Amino acid sequence: MTTMMATSAAGKKTSRFRIDLRSWLFWLIMAVWSLPLIWLISMSFRDNADILSKFEVIPTEISLNGYTQFFEDSSWIGSYMNSITYTLMNTVLSLIVALPAAYAFSRFTFSGDKHLFFWLLTNRMAPAAVFLLPFFQLYQAVDLFDTPLGVALAHMLFNVPLAVWILEGFMSGVPKQLDEIAEIDGYKFGRFFLTIFIPMIRSGIGVTAFFLFMFSWVELLIARTITATAAKPIAAQMTRTISASGIDWSLLSAAGVMTIIPGVIVIWFVRNYIAKGFALGRV
Amino acid sequence: MDGKKKNNRAWFLVLPVVFVVAFTAIIPLMAVANYSLQDIQGASNRLFVGLDFFKRVATDPNIQDAFTRNLTLSAQILLIQIPLGIFLARLMPRSGWKASAALVVVAIPLIIPWNVVGTTWRIFTRSDIGLGGVLVNQFFDYNLSEDTTDAWATILVMDTWHWTPLVTLLVYAGLRSIPQAYYQAAAIDGASRMAVFRFVELPKLRRVLMIAILLRFMDSFMMYTEPFVVTGGGPGSSTQTLSILLTTIAIGQFDLGVAGAFSLMYFLFIQIFSFIFFTVLTLDERPGATKVTPKEKKAAKLAKEPKQVRSKLEKVQK
């Protein structure tokens, strides 16, 4: 389904000029689209005095002040590592619980399956603001407050339903005959699932992992509420750049650029499956 | 969804998910229900007040305003982002390295932490040091911290920048799944670009567009971080979303009863909405429930065309 498609037949009929025009228009729009980000990157290479004293599109004096501050201050680099830690924990945990469930939904009908699936879906749709207070109390009660594991668990609220949803879509694309043949060949379910089925859908798992990573990485409200200092996420750290001397634009921009890098790296690995993944494996 | 075996032992495979979601969703929601029905003044001083807090939420002018405001915002977001997303997806290159590069470029706004999206736009729209703010200021008097229209427009543009890529990627995935034969048939019929879109692409995009509308509505209806960072809900309360207001009541004022009742009503509204959507979305998966619209009939007819054309071509060659 995701095989590369040649230029559409309709496209071949039109003149070469027309195709180029469409392509040029697309890249032009993308250039405008990237202006805010280019601005952020440009700001991150200037120091505060320079930013506030003059307006310039291309920085004349390159300064690495923002980045040096970011890497030398343990509260910045520490919170950055915190974010990476709970995001990775969340990705792994969500996949472990979601894989068998997605298999069940894609292969069997069972009492209440539709209701359960819908109920899972509604948790993806739950406003994070609703959960703030109870999370705050619950995670304190079970000693998970201000720990990476606590944030990872809290993010499973919306990530597990998402993982089940995407994985189910990808698994439904694998013919059921595969399972039957394996059963005839004498495979026990566990061995079949781990050694045959999971490798079959590895691209689907990769895409799911990307989405889990992404949604945990971009979330601020819950992560900020159930942490204080020890597991503080980078996003929360960034809301605290306002001091007596105003906002530290240079440091803030540098930190912003740093938070975009992990996403760009993972996006590159799943680029050819990403569109299908966003459609929840269901195109 | 046919051809699936009935097997209640499948519940064992689902159990881990049920446990996790019970811990992360059911227990907290029970606590919320608990707050909403009692006036808690201390550990031992609780008073059951029934639906009083719900009545207060339903009649609170601030909450009513925020509800209308958020609904307006979501409607505007859908009206802008769905057509724009489709437009961009149709422009995207579909093969080769350009397609990969386009996918990565389009997807970048989606992987930026939401507060960084806010930060980026706050810097970008500053009328003294931000590129966007300075540019707009050449034509209009632009000040997002004082003018309510400017603040509203900024939130709208920022959200469009942030989330239209989601619509684009969904539509792109839908477009790529359309068999080549459909396009060939349309080309032979001499269909215009608009006709191809209307009768070949749009019916095939129904499913992904439903997902896009559902996700965009939900996410915009619970938007918090981006407007919070850029405008803080202001000036006044002109850009205060439901989530910003709820967070202020719950964490800022620590008004547990009102926050609890508010949360439940908010949650219920979204539940009902997603139930309707989910039902419509899975309608065509149920056997016997499929209705073929005239549009789809036409598309199916177009799809059959190539065979006839091929046989005609063969005759000509002979």
From TrEMBL, chain B:
Region described as Disordered: 294-318
Key words of the record: Membrane, Transmembrane, Transmembrane helix
Domain spans labelled ABC transmembrane type-1: 67-277
Location of the protein in the cell: Membrane
Descriptive protein name: Unannotated protein
Spans traversing the lipid bilayer: 12-37, 71-89, 101-124, 151-175, 264-283
Species of provenance: freshwater metagenome
GO BP term, example: transmembrane transport
